[in-house]
Amino acid sequence: MENRTYTADAEPGESVTVAGWVHEIRDLGGIAFLILRDTTGKIQIKFEKDEMDDDLVETGLNVARESVISATGAVEEEPRAPTGVEITPDAVEVVAEADTELPLDPSGKVDAELSTRLDNRTLDLRKEEVQAIFAIRAEIQHAAREQFRELDCTEINTPKIVATGTEGGTELFPITYFGEEAFMNQSPQLFKQLIAGSNVERVFEIGPIFRAEEHNTPRHLNEATSIDFEGAFCDQHEAMDVAEAVVTAAYEAVNENCAEELDALGLAEEFEVPTGEFPRLSYEEAIE
Fold first, then answer.
1. What whole-number distance in Å separates Cα of residue 9 and Cα of residue 20?
2. Average model confidence (pLDDT) for the chain?
3. What angle in degrees, to the nearest 10, is found between the helix axes of 236-257 and 128-150?
4. Which residues lie below 8 Å from residue 88, measured CB to CB, with a gap of 6+?
5. Region of residue 238 (phi > 0: left; psi between -120 and 50: alpha; otherwise: beta)
6. Which fold has domain 127-287?
7. CA dist list (Å): 81 to 17, 27, 85
8. HSE-up of 194 (CA within 13 Å, CB side)?
9. What is the spatial distance between Cα 18 and Cα 85, in angstroms, rounded to a whole number?
10. Closest listed residue to residue 66, CA positions, set 23, 120, 105, 111
11. Cα–Cα distance between 117 and 111 in angstroms, integer?
């Protein structure tokens, strides 16, 4: 959208156009407030009914929650507003109107069953705590990639449709591949070994894996994201050094860049970056 300003960047004294989702509407009689939400936060839009055009007020206050709108107007300081500023609109446009009856409450004030959340994932993803998970996940992957690159690793992307399994002890998802039997890959193990042994030496992949394992918990391996490393001329200690560096880098990045997300998930106080060397056990010690 041309000339759009994110809510977090709206400064007093400016005339801006903001766009996002209608988070909440509070009608107090002669004055009403619409809270607009975008990816950077929220901003208050003020409607003084007796001083504004009736059509403008009707457009802004009759729109359903979670509708997409844009609003243009002057930004003013307002200490009582959620972010310390508010917009007095000159124009409001409804870009996409939402149903008045939503299947779940994106604000999270009313809980919904898991099946309802999954059936209406677009709405569910608008919750602050759900978006926090995506932000932390993205930060982990970014930090892992940066650490692998510092360790002179080359990122690879291996096939996910294969003719045979690469690991024993796990069930495979069978598929039909142009009339032939094939499977969803449960690990990049064989491919990364081939590439590491082809003079590339150190490789890593962050990608999906598929395992046909029955489960009865919210954590399972049917479809997961795996962080894999393979290195030529690496013994077990060097491989553990790499794994330790990547895990530590991920924790450090989340600690530095995801404070708001950790708070949204109620993890801010208990989250700690690992310090010191990780304990290492031999195979015999682990078995014992």
1. 14
2. 93
3. 140
4. 45, 46, 48, 73, 74, 76
5. alpha
6. BirA Bifunctional Protein; domain 2 (3.30.930)
7. 18, 15, 6
8. 9
9. 13
10. 23
11. 9
Tens-digit pLDDT profile for residues 96-119: 999 989 999 888 788 899 899 989
Strand boundaries in 111-201, DSSP class E = 154-155, 161-162, 173-177, 180-184
């990364």: which residue's tokens? 192
**Is residue 18 very low, low, confident or very high in pLDDT (cuts 50, 70, 90)?**
very high
Same topology, domains 7-96 and 127-287? Answer is: no
Residue 129, both tokens: 């705590």
Return the sign of the alpha-carbon dihedral for residues 147, 149, 153, 156.
positive
DSSP reduced 3-state for 152: coil
pTM: 0.86
With tokens 């156009």, the residue in question is 17
Distances (CA, A) of 8 to 20, 76, 77, 93, 189: 12, 14, 13, 20, 44
Q: By the 8 A CB rule, do 71 and 36 touch?
A: yes
Mapped onto helix, strand or coil, the DSSP state of residue 174 is strand
Is residue 265 within 8 A of residue 129, CB to CB? The reply is yes
Domain boundaries, the chain: 7-96, 127-287
Token couple for 167 = 């690991």
CATH superfamily to which 7-96 belongs: Nucleic acid-binding proteins (2.40.50.140)
